[in-house]
Amino acid sequence: MKTMKTQTLIGLLAVMLGTGVARGALYTETFSGINIAIPDGNPVGVSFSETVSDIPGGSTVSGLTVDLSVSGGYNGYLYAYLVAPNGMLVMLLNQPGATISNPFGYGGSGLNVTLSDTAAGSIQTTPETPGAVFSGTFQAAGTLGAVSGSAADGTWTLYFADVAAGGGQPILNGWSLNITAVPEPTSLALMIFGAGLVGFGIIRYFRNSRKSALHNARFTA
Question: Residue 122 has what DSSP assignment?
Fold first, then answer.
């Protein structure tokens, strides 16, 4: 009986550990105080590489949102993309508001946005409010889910450009990544192992209980 209890407790602990990491954990990586000017009218742009090292090794990306803070410039000229540690690229901005009838895009100055695949509207097509910094939560120009499966820790690179001259010089004030990371496959194996121990312990418990009941019935008859 003692062995069964120990076995069941070990199994429950393994399930708890495995389940906790299998759900994924959210890590916020904030790169603020950058305040780097983005060259006006220069498609070459600038890039910002940051190393994420606080996520357990072997973890992979299962979800991602991106925060951008930009001041000045002309929003309709902005172009940006993100490169994950595995080299996968996802488009963040592609001249917001630009269409065939309006090739200049949005005429506002400055962004303070969160980009998320679950947002209701796209940053490319959601109308801006005249005279106000473009802010809110929007879908990116591309699909952020494209980086799912990449290693979560490693070098993330943000590329930013102002592709047309005029409208002033934008400044990247800061950016951040909200990474949902899931563990390496061994954690899932731990959960399965734990569930097996629990199940085996319960079966042994009922089997031993039945044997005990039969034994008692035999000697009391």
Answer: B
Handedness of CA 13, 17, 23, 26 (dihedral sign): positive
State the pairing for strand pair 36-37/171-182.
Answer: antiparallel
Torsion of CA 200, 201, 206, 211, to 10 degrees: 100
Q: What is the pLDDT of residue 197?
A: 45
For the chain, the farthest-separated pair of C-alpha atoms sits apart, in whole angstroms, at 100
User: Taking the chain, what is the end-to-end CA distance rounded to the nearest angstrom?
Assistant: 25
pLDDT, tens digit (0-9, with 9 covering 90-100), for 139-192 = 999 999 999 999 999 999 999 999 999 889 999 999 999 999 998 764 444 444
The residues, ordered by sequence, that sit 6+ positions from 82 with a Cβ below 8 Å of its Cβ are 66, 89, 90, 92, 147, 156, 157, 158, 159
How far apart CA 152 and CA 174 sit, in angstroms, is 20
